[in-house]
Amino acid sequence: MLTAKGYPNRLGVWGWVGGGRWGVERYLYTLHRLTGLGLVFYFLLHILVTSSRAFGEAAWAAAMGRVTGPLFTIGEYLVFLAFAFHAANGLRLVFIELGWGVGKPFEPVYPYKTSVDFQRPLAIAALVLAALLAAAGTLDFFVLHGEVTP
Amino acid sequence: MTRDGKLWTWHVLAGVVIFVFLGLHMLIMHLDDVIRIAWWNPAGGHPIDWANVVARGKMIFFPITYTVLLGAALFHGLYGLKNILFELNLGTAFKRTVALVLLLLGAGLFVYGTWAAFAATALARSL
Predict the structure, then answer these.
(1) How high is the pLDDT of residue A144?
(2) Does the beta-carbon distance from A140 to B33 stay under 8 Å?
(3) Where are the domains of chain B?
(4) Would the N or C end of chain A have less CB density within 10 A of its end CB?
(5) Of A106-115, B33-42, B116-125, where does mean pLDDT reach its minimum?
(6) SS3 per residue for B59-121
(7) Any idea what DSSP says for residue A144?
(8) Does B5 touch chain A (CB under 8 A)?
């Protein structure tokens, strides 16, 4: 997939997505943890807030009233973006865990192939999936609903 | 396999369950204007309007899948949080406290959330 042109270790512009010591996956790991922390914090509060529906219409209206407004819409949108990334990247991690989509193991014979060549397409696919989910969410939050009032 | 190895496997499995049911939850709650499906928002308007909450509450599908999602997400989230906190290396007493607090928090919220899901269905059906 990636071949050095002329110089060893020189991958050109494609090296931005396929090369480097700290691969894209290492940043995805950081982002996965950050979004995970955000999601779990939101989720614990979400259980308490939405459980109010069991107490009837007035309790539900009161609970929803407390979490309405532009600030909460932005917050919810960030939660949606975190969900989009964490879901797509999490799916990639399941694939990696099961060894799917990264080829079969092979003997390391010189010239060595880097594992990046096999794992990077999965990372790109995960990011494309996350971007599609995020785009759908953005459309719903801000274009079709038009909920954010000045 | 070690105990932690087993818990990690459950973490991954819970992740797959969450992918399915949280995906559905997001379709219903946040992609309702992109993909309109009357079945889960029969009253029209916003998914969190009381009429839609009642309509979904009447279907047994929702309390059951909410409970599955609640359990899977609580385990997945709190186990992930536990792993991050354990990596801070703040000693055995800290680890024990964290493990106990997260376990009690998870169990408590699971019981409360499950009760709320089924109580909401009972309420919706009585209306």
Answers:
(1) 84
(2) yes
(3) 3-126
(4) C
(5) A106-115
(6) CCHHHHHHHHHHHHHHHHHHHHHHHHHHCCCCCHHHHHHHHHHHHHHHHHHHHHHHHHHHHHH
(7) I
(8) no
- Determine the pLDDT at residue A103: 82
Res. A21 pLDDT band, cuts 50 70 90: low
Question: What are the residue boundaries of the structural domains of chain A, listed by start?
Answer: 23-144
Residue B74's pLDDT band (cuts 50, 70, 90): very high
Contacts of A83 in chain B (CB under 8 A): 22, 26
Cβ neighbours of residue A80 closer than 8 Å, sequence gap 6 or more: A134, A137, A141, B26, B30
A23-144 is a CATH 1.10.10.10 domain? no
- Residue-level pLDDT at A143: 87
Mean per-residue pLDDT, A49-57 = 97
Long-range pairs for B40-44 at CB < 8 Å and ≥24 separation? none
Percent of chain A predicted with pLDDT > 90: 61
Architecture of domain B3-126: Up-down Bundle (1.20)
Asked if A47 is an interface residue toward chain B (Cβ–Cβ < 8 A), one would say yes
Tell me how many residue pairs between chain A and chain B have CB atoms under 8 A apart: 78
The pLDDT of residue A149: 39
Whether residues B50 and A50 touch (CB distance < 8 A) is answered with no
Give the best residue of A33, A42, A44, A89 to mutate against chain B (max B CB count within 10 A). Answer: A44
CB spacing of A53 vs B116 below 8 angstroms: yes
User: SS3 sequence, A86-142?
Assistant: HHHHHHHHHHHHHCCCCCCCCCCCCCCCCCHHHHHHHHHHHHHHHHHHHHHHHHHHH
